[in-house]
């Protein structure tokens, strides 16, 4: 650790605070890539890839990934330009607050808070599911059942222990969490290579049929896109961790790290789909339990050892997802508080480690509570997480357009290809999918439960916004151009 201490100051009007941090505790470009990539690739591939193949067919699923990537790339360009150009912390929330004002900033940040506090317990539960697949004897001592999902005591203990350990590690500072994220992500990628190569060696091209969904090629691909879109999430962790950036980092690399994460994730998903589709036909895979891809892999290779290695890789992915989202979500809540939208205590920094320790423990409490409720209760909230993600993407698209129009002279270390027109494309793509999810009757629209929860979250947010405004916990928005030069 270097002895040099630096001071980084962010404008108070943008919900960001003065922080002091050791240079050795900062993040570099590779750290941001591993953060984002590790957050993107979790349990989704093991559970959802068979679902994507079943929806669209083997070739149809690959086309769905390519089209989803085409949607995410313009949005990634917008993220890259804002992340490299604005010296603010808080990600999409901070960009929206700076460019559009308090109410739009609050809406963006409020829904992002929902996404982070709900996805963490879901991921923590997945850890116990994976470990119990390796050790079936852990499916014992059932405590209760909620919505047909039994809650086992060993599962609870595993999930709660994982939450406590990772939250405690995050309390100690980014020096430890970035090393952990980097090492486990590299391990995960290595195991992915084992899975892909084994699938090609032990699989058969005959299993790839049907190439397209028999229910209709277009509908199958559209449904595949709607599902895959959420699994492209993860690159958004980079802008939320900007207060941890090393002072010597080239800002342009942050933009490329965001776009590179999307491309690397898409390539990995395509390779996994190819390997998975060769192992077993979708009709056979559907009958193999909660982790059909793992069971199909073991049956195709005939090796329980290789299957165990793949499960361990999935477990590594789940842990990096939890760690990455915890890092990003805690910074979001801290910035959201510092902007005056939550009680100031939520933005408190640890006196020794300079980490958002209150926000970390708040997320830990929500995670533990969600674990107790189980997968059945959390599922509608996870679906709402997709809406929250699209709201964030839509907000970033609007912000990058406005800054292009109002501050054309702003220094942009990383520039979107195509300029403002790329911003318009990101706006149309994110807005279109957001509308499709919110309007009833579309192939990807919300269900009745999700609509009810969405309205409840809007009403609750309105009450919070009104209450905080009345209490005057934040100062009026200043028309500041600080950080735009």
TrEMBL record:
GO molecular function: transmembrane transporter activity
Signal peptide (residue range): none
Matches recorded under Pfam families: AA_permease_2
Subcellular location: Cell membrane
Keywords in alphabetical order: Cell membrane, Membrane, Transmembrane, Transmembrane helix
Record-annotated membrane-spanning stretches: 32-53, 59-82, 103-131, 151-171, 183-203, 218-235, 256-280, 300-326, 358-375, 381-401, 421-439, 451-468
GO cellular component, one term: plasma membrane
PANTHER family: AMINO ACID TRANSPORTER-RELATED, MEMBRANE PROTEIN
Name of the protein: Amino acid/polyamine/organocation transporter (APC superfamily)
Native source organism of the sequence: Melghirimyces profundicolus
Taxonomic placement: Bacteria, Bacillati, Bacillota, Bacilli, Bacillales
């Amino acid at each position: 650790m270097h002895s040099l201490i630096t001071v980084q100051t962010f404008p108070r009007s943008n919900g960001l605070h003065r922080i002091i941090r050791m240079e050795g505790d900062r993040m570099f470009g590779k750290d941001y890539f591993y953060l984002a990539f590790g957050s993107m690739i979790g349990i989704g591939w093991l559970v959802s890839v068979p679902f994507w193949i079943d929806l669209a067919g083997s070739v149809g699923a690959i086309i769905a990934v390519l089209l989803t990537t085409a949607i995410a790339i313009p949005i990634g360009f917008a993220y890259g330009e804002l992340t490299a150009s604005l010296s603010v912390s808080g990600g999409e929330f901070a960009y929206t607050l700076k460019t559009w004002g308090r109410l739009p900033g609050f809406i963006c940040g409020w829904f992002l808070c929902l996404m982070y506090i709900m996805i963490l317990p879901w991921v923590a539960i997945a850890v116990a599911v994976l470990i119990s697949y390796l050790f079936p004897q852990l499916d014992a001592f059932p405590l209760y059942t909620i919505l047909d999902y039994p809650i086992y005591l060993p599962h609870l203990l595993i999930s709660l222990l994982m939450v406590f350990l990772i939250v405690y590690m995050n309390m100690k500072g980014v020096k430890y969490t970035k090393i952990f994220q980097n090492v486990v992500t590299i391990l995960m990628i290595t195991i992915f290579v084992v899975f892909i190569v084994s699938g090609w060696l032990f699989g058969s091209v005959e299993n790839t049929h049907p190439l397209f969904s028999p229910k209709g090629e277009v509908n199958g691909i559209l449904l595949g896109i709607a599902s895959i879109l959420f699994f492209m999430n993860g690159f958004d962790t980079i802008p939320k961790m900007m207060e941890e950036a090393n002072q010597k980092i080239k800002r342009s690399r942050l933009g490329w790290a965001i776009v590179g994460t999307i491309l690397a994730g898409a390539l990995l998903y395509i390779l996994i789909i190819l390997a998975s589709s060769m192992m077993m036909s979708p009709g056979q895979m559907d009958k193999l339990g909660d982790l059909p891809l793992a069971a199909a892999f073991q049956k195709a290779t005939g090796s329980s050892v290789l299957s165990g290695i793949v499960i361990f890789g999935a477990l590594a992915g789940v842990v990096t997802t939890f760690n990455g989202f915890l890092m990003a979500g805690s910074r979001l809540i801290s910035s959201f508080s510092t902007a005056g939208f939550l009680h100031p205590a939520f933005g408190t920094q640890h006196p020794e480690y300079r980490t958002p320790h209150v926000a970390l423990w708040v997320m830990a409490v929500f995670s533990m509570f969600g674990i107790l409720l189980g997968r059945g209760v959390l599922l509608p909230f996870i679906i709402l997480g997709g809406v929250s993600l699209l709201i964030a993407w839509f907000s970033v698209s609007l912000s990058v357009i406005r800054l292009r129009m109002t501050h054309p002279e702003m220094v942009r270390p990383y520039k979107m290809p195509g300029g403002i027109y790329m911003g318009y494309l990101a706006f149309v793509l994110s807005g279109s999918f957001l509308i499709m999810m919110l309007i009833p009757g579309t192939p990807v629209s919300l269900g009745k439960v999700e609509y009810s929860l969405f309205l409840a979250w809007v009403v609750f947010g309105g009450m919070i916004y009104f209450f905080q405004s009345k209490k005057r916990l934040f100062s009026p928005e200043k028309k500041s151009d600080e950080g735009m030069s």
